[in-house]
UniProtKB/TrEMBL annotation:
Domain of life: Eukaryota
PANTHER family documented for this protein: TRANSMEMBRANE PROTEIN 14, 15, TRANSMEMBRANE PROTEIN 14C-RELATED
Protein name according to UniProt: Transmembrane protein 14C
InterPro entries linked to this entry: TMEM14 (IPR005349), TMEM14_sf (IPR044890)
Amino acid sequence: MFLYLLLPHIVLSNSTVLQQPGNSSDIFPPVSNMTVDWVGYGYAALIASGGAIGYVKAGSVPSLAAGLLFGGLAGFGAYQISNDPKNIWVSLATSGALTGVMGKRFYGSRKFMPAGLMAGASLLMVGKLSLALLQKPQES
């Protein structure tokens, strides 16, 4: 049944299956050609899973809350970048804030896990987003 619903989307768009009125293509819109920000989604998953691991290992509710909050913001930022590559501001603010907070924690503790890892990943994300900002000039 599931394959039957997806079959019209697997067939090429110039076939008669997609051009018939009343088929399942009316329910499922055609897939767009947007670029997916896989790095951003991976970064969001790293943050959220880090908060969950902090909760499981140490029972830290603030770690879980911060991980889910910042992971959700990073995921939303990756979604925005996937829809419009110029819309980097949520991702940049999230990764910039985490770079500062986790960098300060790493500087104070000198422990790579978890503060050093999160600060390093966040710094790399800020660099990636800064390069994307510099390569695509904003229209005014």
